[in-house]
Amino acid sequence: MKNIPTLTTQRSQREVMAAIMLEEIDALVEKVETLSGTIVHTEKKFQDTVKELEGAGDSYHQAVLAANLHHKNEMVAYLRTVSTTSIAKTTEEQREIVQKLIREAVSKEITALKKAISESSANHRVPFLSSWGRIIICCSLTALIGSAITVELIQRLGIT
Fold this sequence. Notes:
By secondary structure, the protein is mainly alpha-helical.
């Protein structure tokens, strides 16, 4: 006589299969809960990193603005000194000297800003920094050119 499965052996096999499936489902649910916690933790760390980078960007921006103001004041003081010592020179000579000084100052400032921005960009590898760098360079150039034009107008009008 063959072993014919009885109703009780079929039921116990079903219960064993159901228990195995429930254990696997429990393991999967535990993995999903762990993954959810990891995702939340990673999101918090990412947000903290973004906040730190924004703060660093703001402080860098303030430092560049302060440096620009300082160098502008130095340039204005130097240009005043040069212009007072060269009063005896003709207007054409004065214009050439002022333009040369402005070119040199702007060239040095641009070189320094490019170097600082490239070093900062190389250290941080932050994508938005390159756009900040362009904005800072444009603002610096605008300020320097505006200052140069003001000095030239003052020279031409003879205001001391």
